Amino acid sequence: MSSIPNRTRSVRTRGLDLTALIPDYPYDYGAFLANRGSAPLFDVPESAYGTKVLVVGAGVSGLITAYELLRCGLKPVLVDASGRPGGRMNDQHVDQVGKRHHAELGAMRFPVSAKGLWHYLNKWPHARDSAPFPNPGTEAAVSTVVDFRGEQFYYEHESQEFPIPPQFQQLEDYFFGEFLEQDPLRFSDMEAAMNSGQQDVIKEIWNNLVAPDEGDSWDNGSFFESLIRHGTWTADDIQLFGQVGFGTGGWNTDFPNSFLEVLRVLYTGLDVDHQLLLNGTGLFVNYLYDSAPAIAGDEVRYWDRDTTVRSLSEQEFPSTALNQEVTHIKRGNDGRFTVRFRNTESDVTEERPYDAVVYTPHVRILDKLRYTGDETDYQSATELFDASTWEAIMYTHYMQSSKVYAAIDTPFWNKDGPGSDGERSLSVTLSDRITRGTYLLDYSGGSIPGGDGAGIFLSYTWNDDSLKYLGDGQGTEAAEKHANICLNMLREIYPDVDFDKHLVRDVDTGEPFISWTWEEKTQYLGAFKMNLPGQYRYQRRLFSQFMDGVEDRTPDGIVLAGDDISWVAGWAEGAVTTAVNAINKIALVFNPPESWPTDGPISAWDELKPAAQDPASN
Asked: Which pLDDT value is given to residue 471?
């Protein structure tokens, strides 16, 4: 779901098979998961079997945490305030009789370098059905139109008849061939280290950027500032780059963010070789929530073979586990936690005890939670974390994001447009006007009958760009208004396309459009975390929280996980890897120190831990 776009230079076509070894902590989560095979990720003693662990938030991180705790023999109780599983993996749809048109309002493109995520997707044949995602400028998109300053540029992937405009190609060649190759960025060296798993090289390059022995940290500068200070582009070059990227997608919404945020995604290949899940992300989410691990061939300790995350959660909250908002967490003198819940349907409030808690939603909600209730509640909530953790929580920065979706009867853009000299009738479109990014999605080829609909994201935008849809209310009326605004603009670029002819309406609602802005959704604070310059130290503290108490053998029973806690927010891989961290920590909580697992991310901490800009923080 990240705002950072895809580049045309496919890693796969260059003979590389990158694993997203996040440079701050290049632990190979994909290899760890593969090596565990069908066995539970960690063992807990039989005396802990059936012990309740609360998992807050049913997004990808919470779902995987609960799924794996179940397999360990613990009793995960997974709750969410939204009424549905999935979090920011949000597959809504427009349904016709016999056909489903997926509207992925959150995560929609999944990099092949995200080996942790694909470990789970590959467990279920229907979940892993995929095809290359049609990012601008790529082979899957076939054709791309850039609408910039009133002029349209049409090109097709590796086409002699419709080649990429030379000024766009020059941007890409300079950015990858010169700018990123300068010392100390060393893009090719880092990519090679990622490909071969050379953790020492990854750490050496990255630590020299984050905490150099001499000079400023590259975390101190924004993306825009880094281009100005360390590049040779003119102001016009940067503006064009901001719109086009490198023939694949604009970057200007990322200009205010820390340059490290961009580098991480480029180094790890998370920006390239994306896949579209042909049966929708909702299927994957429901497998994790509603499917017994035995169906995926996974071993389970203690529980019956048909036990699921849903069944254990609904033992605690019959039929309402996904309508439970956590409003307070208090640590007791015995190390257990008392958690207050509010049923979002009935408004009934109650408290329940748990031996451990894994918290995965947007982390700044915890700051509001501190001040909800009376003074006693405030004091007990503040005691959950130390002052440095609360500081990091309070300064977490979020990116806005919005989408406007239209369900389409057929992917008509796959045919040449009449009278268009061979050009496609409609293309993936990048514009400097209100739509910004227009994506064309074809779900044909999935293994589930009737799931092969098509759709157009008339607009997909981030940061301040997405705020233009605020203030119009929500629901079908706002969706139609936003869609018509986008369609009116697109008709200027594509006057021969009869968009109305291709719209299909939902069998229940009668609507073809969905408009979604994460800023205005209950329980959300935006789309995803994206650090500003100078915020590396906050991210280091949040990511490191799973290590609290480990060194002195008193592991804390509340663990932060999820997209916010990861180094690569906006990508589901970060949700997966921080879930593994949390599961490892929970295993320590329930095992005596002499039985602590000797593999996993915690055992690699001393070797791979993120660099501290302040030596005292080590």
From this structure: 85
In sign, the C-alpha dihedral spanning 384, 388, 394, 399 is: negative
Are 474 and 379 contacting, i.e. CB atoms less than 8 angstroms apart?
Answer: no
CATH, residue 328: 3.50.50.60
The structure tokens listed for 300 are 């389970």
Q: Per the structure block, which two tokens stand in for 381?
A: 């909530």
Q: Is 338 helix (H, G, I), strand (E, B) or coil?
A: strand
Domain that holds residue 40: 28-86+283-397+527-600
Residue 444 contacts residue 91 (beta carbons within 8 Å): no
Averages of pLDDT over runs of 10 residues in the chain (618 residues) are: 51 76 98 97 97 98 98 98 96 93 95 97 96 93 94 94 93 94 96 95 98 93 96 94 74 93 94 94 97 97 97 97 96 91 97 98 92 81 92 95 96 72 91 96 92 94 89 89 97 96 95 94 91 97 98 95 95 98 98 95 98 70
Give the total number of structural domains in the chain.
1
d(CA 181, CA 184): 8
Q: CA angle at residue 64 from 524 to 607, to 5 degrees?
A: 100
> Is residue 440 one of the residues assigned to a domain?
no
Output the CA–CA distances (angstroms, integers) from residue 248 to 10, 170, 380, in the order listed: 11, 13, 49
- Counting Cα atoms < 13 Å in the Cβ hemisphere of 474 gives 8
Sign, Cα dihedral of 313, 318, 319, 323: negative
Strand partners, 91: 104
pTM of the model: 0.96
Backbone φ/ψ region at 158: left (φ over 0), alpha (ψ -120 to 50), beta: left
